[in-house]
Input
Amino acid sequence: MEVARPHLKHPPVRNVDIGGLQDTFLVSAVATILVIRLQLWLTNYPQLGGGKLHIAHLLWGGFGMLIALILLLSYVGRSLRVPAAVLGGIGFGFFIDELGKFVTSDNDYFYKPAAAIIYIVFVLIFLGTRAMRRRRGFTAREYLVNAMDLATDAARHDFDVREKHRALAMIDQCDPSDPLVEPL
Output
């Protein structure tokens, strides 16, 4: 099967909004954990469900991340990226907050080292996202692909002045000899 091979011939193209989107994801995730922990502390750690049933907030986190992924995979353009970063971050926050239950044999939500593990996970995500940004400057091809991505938004709605200036700035960074640049 040759289905996946054509996609591997070319390296992935970074989004010029990589920094803001990754930061939005991280801030949403951290804020979610803080809100969850504060709410649980204020309400004396209630348990949803009854008897043997417990609806872990990890499930809501998975649902949030799923919705974010479905949005990104289903629609063209940039308009849903920030909402998906927020929703994905909230989902990840709900998910990772339950870590203590899944690294202990007795499902201990209050497992003391869980906070340190969560902190390490966030530090690793932070360092990984920074490495993706600093890998190198954007290439002419990356600017071209991002300008084309903006053009899809222009096909859906007229550019405002800010979007138009942004698209033109990206086109200025493109290789003028590239045949795809002139139509833009």
Summary: The chain has two domains: 14-134, 140-172. The two ends are 35 Å apart (CA to CA). The mean pLDDT is 88. The helical segments are 5-8, 18-42, 57-74, 81-97, 99-102, 113-134, 140-156, 161-172.
